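Z., the sequence and structure:
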Amino acid sequence: MGNKTIKTTKIARLTKMGTTLAKATGKFFVKKTFDRTVKEARDLKVKIDVAKDIVQSMGELKGAFMKMGQMLSISDDLILPPEISELFKELQKDAPPMPRSDLDKVFLNSFGKIPEGLFKSFDRTPLAAASIGQVHKAVLPSGEDVAVKVQYPNILKATQNDFKNIDQIKKFFSLIFPGVVDVTNLVTEMKRSLLQECDYVKERSEMAAFKSSFAKDFPNIHVPETFEAFCSESILTMEFLEGDDFEESLKYSQEERDFLGQLLFDSYIYSLFKKRKIHSDPQNGNYFFSKKNIKLLDYGSTREFPADFVKRYAAILLAMEEDDFALYKKVIVDLGVFLKTDSEELFQRHFELVKETYNPYTLEGSYPLLEVNPFLKVKDFIKTVDLKKRKFPREEFFLLDRSTLGLFLKLRRWGSRVNWVRAMKKYRGPLDEEIRRNGID
């Protein structure tokens, strides 16, 4: 994939992705005997060919379509076959960079200068190119090394146009997850999240907030400093950080991987239940590691949750821990997981399923994740549910589930022995007490 100017018009983007999806759909359904999912399609070569087509189109279009591919890329083999996940991982590292003329245009619009007129030095070869922008290494006039995040020209317009192509986005989800329920809530949340990622002013503010929060409670998590004089609506200049990537961190000792796993888990539970705001882009490229520290990058995707949602999410966990079926049933209806009219038998089966998945992590002590793939159990359960006329649950679940998946995939590959209970008691405990006293209303 070479340097290409991004297509931004609705028609151009619709045509590009529509052609790819039509081609992919044709490959999948050339035989009626094919299962309707990527996971279950019987011919691996067909699956790989389809994924290659989709990945290439996503990399060229960037914006919403590329972000959907990056979401799939964090799943390892939990959702998609490993051969397919590996292809989608190309979107984390090999997205085509913008042409030189486009790069100059962004700087001229922001500062009236090309990069070399603003910085002491500027490396035009990007360190990384992603869905919204690309990152370059530079040196400030004062001598500090910095990372410069540059937004693709007109990417906001392109992303807005992607969401006007709502049928194409729904077709993508139906191709990857056939039979999925009404995804309107999911697409609404994805739109909100992606448009937020285009707002570099907000991202700078989020970085400052997380830096302040972690500096006090988690000093081993490093958030980069920003340099306001070298920032604009489309350029974000920040401290240049280095470290080991995730694959390198797998070579650390068991004790070091235990430490990092506990740090990552504790900071996540703290962010969710105490601060009600999480870093919600868990792809491995957003992390650098050392044996005692985590450097957390890219704050374009963060999610602040309403108090009522966090309280109800805590109530789900509490209900499982205390075997409170009545509380569980009420909460999952409130959150849109099930309908009030669903059968008691369906509620009970779901309750037993999530308890079976969650309760091993309610025991005292430090121990690694179980090897069982929970998605296979969920998939078997979903096969027994009539999905017609059902909607995706509350939109907050989209980024929460994505972030939780990213966390647990790291812990699983590290084999980290984690004390799961301690952070829950410390940061979720006050909510549990409130729920016990006053219920969830």
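The first strand starts at residue 121 and ends at 122. Confidence is low (pLDDT under 50) at residues 10-42.

Let me know what you think.
H.
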